[in-house]
Amino acid sequence: MPVGTFPDAHIWGKSVSDDAWLVVGLGNPGKEYAGNRHNVGFMVADLLASRVGAKFGRSKRAHAEMAEGRLGFGGPKLVLVKPLTYMNLSGAPVVSLAQFFKVPVSNVIAVHDELDVPFGQVRAKRGGGEGGHNGLRSMSKSLSSKEYARVRFGIGRPPGRQDPADYVLSDFSGVERKELDFLVDRAADVVEAIVLEGVEWAQNKYHGG
């Protein structure tokens, strides 16, 4: 069954205790990639897991690490996912888990690095293009839809003539690392806001800075 055919189980602003949300942190597996700009999705997913008291483990249903927990006492269920397929093939484990947990596209959130947003800013949106991001492109193809939510973690454009592909696979600078924990925390806040209140509410609250 295509994921897009699942019934929409969530009305924005009215959380239901048995709602399930699939939160996908995009990144590449392996220690050599852990600190890369391209791996902020993994960083945010790790923080969200600690917030809900969950630990990541290998999924038996998809090539991914997965953690489950509830947002607040009796709140919406979060299925946190870190695909282990490398960025370009992220969609396959996402669609497998969305189908298993019967999560509609409207309840899928991708957390990813964004070249078109300056470093220090976090933006929420629903749908739209992928901006050349291979993880998003793979998700859109596998889900047969672009209408999932995105939490866009700004990394800015590469300096000078540096190739964007090299830039995203490099670590944050020393100056950026001083702000990184705060921004990862902010991105996790944006994810929670989308789940509890909706994308528009999150935009109104967090797009001011």
From TrEMBL:
Broad class of the protein's primary localization: cytoplasm
Reactions catalysed according to its record: an N-acyl-L-alpha-aminoacyl-tRNA + H2O = an N-acyl-L-amino acid + a tRNA + H(+)
EC number(s) per entry: 3.1.1.29
A Pfam entry, by short name: Pept_tRNA_hydro
Residues carrying the site annotation Discriminates between blocked and unblocked aminoacyl-tRNA: 28
UniProt: tRNA binding residues: 33, 86, 88, 134
Subcellular localization: Cytoplasm
Keyword Cytoplasm included in the entry's annotation: yes
Site, Stabilizes the basic form of H active site to accept a proton: residue positions: 113
GO MF: hydrolase activity
Function statement: Hydrolyzes ribosome-free peptidyl-tRNAs (with 1 or more amino acids incorporated), which drop off the ribosome during protein synthesis, or as a result of ribosome stalling.
Database matches in PANTHER family: PEPTIDYL-TRNA HYDROLASE
Family per similarity comment: Belongs to the PTH family.
HAMAP family per the UniProt record, alphabetical: Pept_tRNA_hydro_bact
Annotated protein name in UniProt: Peptidyl-tRNA hydrolase
Protein's organism: Paractinoplanes deccanensis
